Amino acid sequence: MPFSERLKECRNARNLKQREVAAEIGVVLRTYQGYEEGRSEPNIARLIALADFFDVTLDYLMGRTDS
To answer: How far is it, in rounded angstroms, from Cα 29 to Cα 60?
Structure first.
């Protein structure tokens, strides 16, 4: 599963709005929307922030594993 789809799946599983996740990791809404739409990818610091926020591994978030 591509990163953008996995990210959206994690957000929807917690019933969060895009703006809530964006605020939590310190990016503007448009930037976060780019992540979910596959138009851009976060840097490593943002990837770590996302993984920590959703309590998943980087491998899971990047689609390298399903567990």
So the answer is: 23
Query: Where does residue 45 rank: exposed (0-12), middle (13-18), buried (19+ CB within 10 A)?
Result: exposed
* 43 Cβ neighbours under 8 A, 6+ residues apart: none
Rounded to two decimals, the pTM is 0.92
Q: Which has the closest alpha carbon to 50: 63, 42, 30, 14?
A: 42
pLDDT digits (tens, 9 = 90+) for 18-42: 999 999 999 999 999 999 999 999 9
Q: From the CB of residue 37, how many other CB atoms can be counted at a distance below 10 Å?
A: 10
